[in-house]
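G., the chain you wanted modeled:
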Amino acid sequence: MEFLLELKAYQEIAMTQSTNRSYISSGEINKVVYTLQQAIGCIGDTLENPNQSRKRIGQLFETLIKLIIQEVGLICEPRTVNIPIPGFSGYKMSYELDVVFSREKAILTSESQHKYIHPSEIVGSVKTTSKDRIDKIFLDKFLLTKLLEREIPVIAIFLHDVQRASATRDLERNGDRHFKINSTFKTNHFLGYTVALNRLDGVYYVDPRPEMLVNERLREQIHNFQTFLIKDLWEFSR
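Predicted structure as tokens:
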């Protein structure tokens, strides 16, 4: 919380201050956010309806990210927009945007397309995982840009990209059960959407998969959440 106050006061300059260097190098921002959300997930696992539980856990992750962005001094709220479809009078496409953020509150006028997304605002999609969702995020940027007839900056923030796998038993030793995880990130789909549709303006993981750190093509586009908070957030909202 003290570091978030530092970010609010000094913005991107905070990462260059000697008093903050050791904290930033520790990667603690990612650790704290991950632990908070996993605590929420553990509680959600105790609820009776698993589908409702997963939905609620995802909503709370959106709220957590929104509160962090607000804490460092930016305007950040979810928004639903109804965008007219060009050439089809009276028809509108409804979009529920997880978060829309800006450094200063935009002055919106009802006469212009800016009432939907102001040029100073950035659209953020916040999900616990990219599984079954990554294609929609790429498509959202494509359609928003097409329908509003101007470039709409869209970023994605994910918690992780793993799921629990079935337990196995180590029969050769003592029969203990070993719990595993499987990756849910689809590298080829991600790169394919980048080429076929458009490149997202930023992709951030609280807990990136190892391949995202070593694959050169992925490393160009995917970064950890701490990088977003201390650096890219301020560049986007400049």
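The first strand starts at residue 75 and ends at 84.

Shout if anything looks off.
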